[in-house]
Specification:
DNA-binding; 3-stranded antiparallel sheet; about 45% helix; Arc Repressor Mutant, subunit A; 10 strands; homodimer; alpha/beta; Rossmann fold
Chain lengths: ~250, ~250
DNA sequence: AAGAGTTTGTGAACGAGAGAACAAAATCGA
DNA sequence: TCGATTTTGTTCTCTCGTTCACAAACTCTT
């Protein structure tokens, strides 16, 4: 999904609820950096310090924060606790988000025991698996529920966010059921392209894709070191193409 | 930018080894889509079909592929097997990449048992954990090695890619040791900002950040439905700011 | 062999994001 | 109070990525 609010004239950043996607993706990072600074006893922080802790450039950080409103003080910096609250509010972490996880394989188990969710305002209210033999097994303090409980649970808790951690082939059907039951945001760990209605947000996390991207760069590093004479790839390509087309 | 077309005949694009980052990130997706099409018995596929299977727009797919070279046939489409091989070669999947995983908590266990790595040319050669009591425990067919084996193992296998799945506070030290031992690409699952030398690539996967991004959009959906009058947030903000600054 | 029909590869327009640079706003010291 | 200093918020420019639209290149049918 994409929301492109045409800027309706009003320049007040806080009123302008359309925050750039790239900025939204960094807000949680800032939140974590602020938490670290707060733990270290800092009550105030400059954009330079915060940017350092978050691993970004300070100009970018300032621009990101300016989209939320004018929450800093020139000559001083940002009040750590106050900014923390503002970002949390902007992201929606001041409320609690009930979540379900579908698919309790290795990854699903890891997710259901992962403390990082609960501590940030997400509470896992149920976990599901298609294997009837595993129903009742406990993971992260929750029993595995049977798949036929999916719709009633989603409805009862008003779930809008779900995590899919099933094998690839099962993912689409699960997504369909989740959407039909009322879910409108899905975090997908399954290696599959999900097709969902426009109003539904899907974010995909793919472990093997990340490794492949690293492999590409790694290969380039290796190649750029050893390869001085260009052109031998050309014949290689032609040969391969002929073979491939046979 | 130096995007000059060297009119030196044969394969201009293939010689141009600089593939845009955004394209690199999609190549693995195309690879998976091609595998699915091949399994379905298709020997040839149009950009439209392939784009459908990969969940992207066909113009984007064509431009992405054009960066690798001119591997399609006008009026026909792309030879599935041939394109598969070319992409795999470009990413570097025609060779085998040995990988180590550090940190065998819930997530590390899931990663070490995950089949998607091995099937794509990544072989996990060792797993490490800081807890001495767990050394020897088997996960995914490998025993947990003690941390002091990290450097020798990395050296012996010529490891260049490593996965960090430790708790946040331990991540930086692990990264330092990996880099010192010769690793130049890191996939980081720990909730921490890693600082590494320039030549080292780091990719970060953060589960709770993904959920937070979904929460933001979810909150916006909810808000845009109920809220018609803007401006009340402003006073809210002012009040909060005063409180926060006390 | 020629025309009709497909489908790629790419030029051009557009939009989003990153970074540099600086004016505006606040503090601090005398 | 005034000037020096710090640091934000914003403007401008540049780069990168996406999308459109179409000529070129290929196949197929007659």
């Amino acid at each position: 999904m994409t929301q492109m609010r045409p800027p309706t004239g009003s320049r007040a950043a806080a009123a302008d609820r359309g925050i750039p996607e790239a900025t939204v993706a960094r807000l949680p990072v800032y939140l974590r950096a602020l938490a670290a600074l707060a733990d270290a006893g800092m009550r105030t922080a400059s954009s330079e310090q915060l940017a350092g802790a978050a691993g970004v450039n300070s100009a970018k950080l300032r621009k990101d924060l300016s989209h939320l409103g004018s929450y800093g003080t020139r000559g001083v910096g940002y009040d750590v606790e106050y900014l923390r609250y503002q970002i949390a509010r902007e992201i929606g972490l001041t409320q609690d988000w009930p979540v379900v996880i579908v698919g309790i394989g290795n990854l699903g188990q890891a997710l259901s025991s992962y403390g990082g969710f609960r501590s940030r305002g997400f509470s896992i209210v149920a976990i599901f698996d298609a294997d009837p033999d595993r129903v009742g097994e406990e993971h992260g303090g929750l029993p595995i529920s049977p798949m036929d409980q999916l719709e009633p649970v989603v409805a009862e808790h008003g779930i809008s966010i779900a995590v899919i951690a099933t094998p690839g082939p099962a993912a689409q059907e699960v997504a369909d059921r989740l959407v039909a039951a009322g879910v409108s945001s899905i975090l997908n760990f399954a290696p599959a392209v999900l097709s969902v209605p426009e109003r539904v947000d899907v974010r995909k996390v793919d472990l093997s894709i990340e490794l492949q991207i690293l492999a590409y760069h790694e290969q380039r590093k290796a190649l750029s070191g050893e390869e001085a004479v260009p052109g031998h790839d050309a014949t290689d390509d032609v040969a391969a193409k002929v073979v491939g087309q046979l």
